[in-house]
Amino acid sequence: MSPPIDFEIRRRTLLVGTAAAAVGAGFARHASAQNSNAAPIGPETTTVTLTVNGEARELTVDNRVSLLDALREHLHLTGTKKGCDHGQCGACTCTVNGERVNSCLSLAVMHDGDELETIEGIGTPEDMDRMQVAFVENDGFQCGYCTPGQIVSARKVIEEIRAGVPSHVTGDLSAEITLTDAEIRERMSGNICRCGAYANILAAITQVAEEQA
Asked: What CDD domains does the entry give (predicted)?
């Protein structure tokens, strides 16, 4: 066994060493800040072609622009709402290639060639979709801010259940999935209504599902 090391550190030595480490860290942060201000490598913008509500649209966007901002600020489709901007409220829900997505979490440049549908492509005040009519008939909204995302999700929820796509509350995966309140609530849980119109939203979705049965 090696003999014990006779080690002693003095207070002055400790303080000097600590100060040197702090100075070194400061230099490292300064160098990092300088590097962060350096010009980016490669192009800053990209031109993409999107098929939005059946219409081909070409736009050039900053590579950091979200799909939500591309829809609202570049294509002026403001029906898709910006709520939390963190993928937690569902107000920005639209569909990409038939699947619902939170557009605030996706970059526009990722969707070159994709097909998108927003609330503007679902119906108009003069020609409303059946789900829009059901929301009106069941008073499924109050302030209306979350309603576009709710309607986009609601239509896809029925499609998912009909297609046999299971959810967290689905029991027997070998049996046909039935359209229950629990299934609807679970699948709509990503769409928040701060007014609390959940019971009426559930009634609207159930009404449309029964009409389509």
From this structure: fer2 (cd00207)
Domain tally for the chain? Answer: 2
State pLDDT tens for residues 143-173.
Answer: 999 999 999 999 999 999 999 999 999 998 9
Residue 52's CB: how many other CB atoms inside 10 A?
21
| pLDDT tens figures, 53-79 | 999 999 999 999 999 999 999 999 999
Residue numbers of the domain that contains 79? 45-121
pLDDT in tens, 78-95: 999 999 999 999 999 999
Nearest alpha-carbon partner for 197 in 146, 148, 162, 133: 146
Contact 68, 103 (CB under 8 A): yes
Q: Are residues 114 and 137 located together in one domain of the fold?
A: no
Work out the burial of residue 57: count CB atoms within 10 Å of its CB; fewer than 13 is exposed, 13-18 middle, 19 or more buried. middle
Question: Do 83 and 145 contact (CB within 8 A), yes or no?
Answer: yes
Angle (CA) 159 164 165, round 5°: 80
> CB neighbours of 93 closer than 8 A, spacing ≥ 6?
80, 100, 101, 102, 103, 148, 149, 150, 152, 153, 190, 191
Residues 109 and 50 occupy one common structural domain: yes
Residue 132 CA, chain-centre distance (Å), reads 22
Q: What is the DSSP letter of 52?
A: E
Q: Looking at residue 183, what is its pLDDT?
A: 97
